[in-house]
């Protein structure tokens, strides 16, 4: 009887265990099915399409007339198939992982990548003047490409806290430090192009509540640099006045007065300051042109100093801090402008200085710094409306364009596929950006939304800078075109960025136990 009782209890326990295991297995299957159902397959379809067009472009850029080894691993196009295959496998692995892993270990991943970036600075292998590559036999990896997703995770983790406030200087400063730290290490590797990509995070900061004045200041600095450098040697209407300095100082004054209108709402003060600034500048110009020629910049500097002192006086008198910030903006703008020439001639590398001079039209070096862009423009222009056809490009097949399967791969698209093909590729990227905006906006947690805006900002920056560089509209920086440029590091890096977000998005509506 005792044995029968024990056997009965054992059978009941076994049935309960089987029932429990069945419930657990059922929940796992249900969770897996719900995740697959929640995946954004439109974004995955765009990803596959970009990979396909990217491989065709690599194949066209690296193909040599008469070659029959397109799919051979000894060719660039063959190796790109390997990178594409491993990227798809990597994306699948990322989708199978628990989405909470990325939130939980964000700081750990960021710290490990920082250590790797720092160690790479002392890397003995130097490739094309850069120490950003880790060489392991035939395999070469660029940690800077993987640091992007790690930085995006870390800044999303920090800014996703309940206590985070963008308007607290301490919180904002820490968020910026998370972005700037990998930039410093990458610059130490002599990889300036990859470091500049991190400026794209400021678009995410703006979306999350960063004051528009910060973004405006960044744009103003670029305008001051370009206008000041380009027109510095041009004289204003027979007077010893530099047009570049004249325009920049006038822009600083007008911008400061405009900020008074926006942030202080003092319309009468704005009218008075505009009358003083414009009236004084016009009188100084007429006097210098028709009476005694002199440098009008001297008058503008005096006028700027008076405006700054007036802003500081109003701050002390009214205790309204916006006046102080506007005064600091004016001081910083003038200081930046006068240091721009020093940075260009003493801080930047010679090849970077030549590239900027060529872009601004100060130099025309078609056999040197301007050669890449000039040949790229010829290749794109020769494609016409419909292009020359797959593998029929002449500029790319005869290797006239350096780096034509990496940084300048868009010229292959223009030559072989023409305007229609180039427009199609750009529309694909536009569809990806718009889709990422949609996904980011529907996130139920700040972590997912912030990470989504980080990666769409990175993609937007890469596409805008790379295509602008190839068309001769922007300086030659040297960053890859996502999913098109040859190489495993960039392809894996962009896949990590995208599929981590797709995994986070797929779990946005899951009920946590």
Q: In terms of per-residue confidence, which ranges show pLDDT below 50 for 5 or more consecutive residues?
A: 17-21, 23-30
Main sheet, how many strands, which sense, barrel?
A: 2 strands, antiparallel
Strand order of the largest sheet: 1-2
Number of strands: 2
| Radius of gyration, whole Å | 29 Å
Helix content: over 70%
- Mean of all residue-level pLDDT scores: 84
Element string (H = helix, E = strand): HHHHHEEHHHHHHHHHHHHHHH
Structural class: mainly alpha
Categorize the overall geometry. globular
Structural account:
The protein has 513 residues and is an all-alpha fold. Helix content is 72%, strand content 1%. The protein has a two-stranded antiparallel sheet. Strand 1 (134-136) and strand 2 (139-141) form a beta hairpin. It starts with a helix and ends in a 7-residue tail after the last helix.
